[in-house]
Amino acid sequence: MNKISLIGLTEFKRFFNSPLAWSILAILQFILAMMFLLLIDGFITGIQTEMVGQDVSIGVTDVVVSRIYLWAGVIMLVVMPILTMRSFAEERMNKTLPLLISSPISFIQLVLGKYLALVLLVIVVVVMVSLMPLSLFIGTELDYGRIATSALGLFLLLTSFAAAGLYISSLTSQPIIAAIASFGLLLLLVVLYISGTSSTNASELFVYLSHISHFFSFTDGILNSADIAYYLIFILLFLVLTVLRLDSQR
Amino acid sequence: MKKKLLIQADHLHRYYGKHHAVNDISITLYQGEVLGLLGQNGAGKSTTMQLLTGNLSPDEGSISINSLNLQHQPIKAKRQLGYLPETPPLYHDMRILEYLRYCARLHDISKADLTDAVNKVMQRCGLEDMQQRLIGNLSKGYQQRVGIAQAIIHEPAVVILDEPTVGLDPIQIQEIRALIKVLAQDHSVILSTHILQEVEAICDRVHLLKEGQTVFVDTLDALKNYQNNKIGANASLENIFTALVS
After folding, report:
1. Domain B5-80+158-245 superfamily per CATH
2. A6 vs B106: CB contact, 8 Å cut-off?
């Protein structure tokens, strides 16, 4: 346990030694802030004026908050592979992996340590994204329960991206290849969803397999244990694959 | 009294695809000894070292370090080891102090002993004045020293150094050799090299490899005597080496 947190915290700090993490977080925040502004503007000038005098129960949380989380999920589909690509591919490229492999740690500790660093980074992203909808509390009443489920959903979605990216990173010694391949894998799961929901060839199975479909219920404010289980199994699968991969490579 | 056996590797084999990189190599290392692993490029020196440190697993054969089996008790066995690979495993975005503290903690040094261990190793490797420098900005020689510091920080029973003096200037080479001699007083050392003066300067025993196979294992003097009978008295080490590997 000690070793896992040691590796995790050190790797997490190392993210911020290079400009990569800083610039990614800055650009992500900038794009989402623009989206947030557009959504708020659309709500105030469009939806809110129409609602005057009518007895409807649509609020700012429905329109703005859940969409900002959806957009965050979509953008992170592209960003997460860039954050995960370094994990093992860069160690291999720079030939630093022997340091960890010759140390008295197990492969499980090594993989969980690397994964912990990514999870901490995901927490930073989720907190930064959540600050925007939370800032609305100054002017209006918010559905905090829905914000909480959306944040949890985003956290689970991104940690599942991280697990897949970590595995792909263990396959190669080229970080760029790792990034592209992880992006391809994540996109494939989205394509599964699109093809599963198409009007001609709808497939329940494809929709179920896609990680995006399980995200929607969270942004709708529904906490479904099946969806949580999906993400946990997804993460566990890729972490186990990573451990096996590292062990078989010796 | 026989000295303690620290490494016992029996009949190691390792294939890269069809290439038989390590073919039936057995290595023994006793306490307080410096063993030189010699051979031409591609003779299997680095592969053998990777096998001994658990970075590669042997296709056949077994390795014990201080009576702990590397395959069955990898974590306990690795505690006895310090390893400097051919390319020092350095994170270029970290500072020396930060990096060495990380290495120390990876090797189970408790928080209480951390500062002492790091200070001691920095003093030994001449890094005291550099502790806040970024590793990426260091010269090759200093990077090599940080690499060695990383390998000995936890005072392992066995230190394995893969070409520790390659790419260094003559003064740095002498400093590193002096450091290895000091290390040999309380650790056992295996080092690989193809520089013969280095072998004469620091090794007690040599292990000569050729195309993945053992050609000769014994003390330096024995190597000279053995060959003197064949290629004439007072043959230089270079002649002996050439005769054995070609």
Report:
1. P-loop containing nucleotide triphosphate hydrolases (3.40.50.300)
2. yes
Q: What is the ipTM of this complex?
A: 0.88
pLDDT digits (tens, 9 = 90+) for A141-176: 888 888 999 999 999 999 999 999 999 999 999 999
CB atoms < 10 A from the CB of B152, how many?
22
- The domain ranges of chain B are 5-80+158-245, 90-155
In chain A, the percentage of residues whose pLDDT exceeds 90 is: 64
pLDDT of residue B8: 92
Strand partners, B28: B8
Provide the 3-class DSSP secondary structure of residue B82.
Answer: strand
Per-domain residue ranges of chain A: 2-44+59-248
**Alpha carbons A115 and B236: distance in angstroms, whole number:** 55
B59 touches chain A (CB under 8 A): no
Q: Is B144 on the interface with A (CB under 8 A)?
A: no
- For A77, A181, A212, B224, B244, the CA distances from A188, given in Å and listed in that order, are 11, 10, 11, 66, 58
CB pair distance less than 8 Å for B78 and A98: no
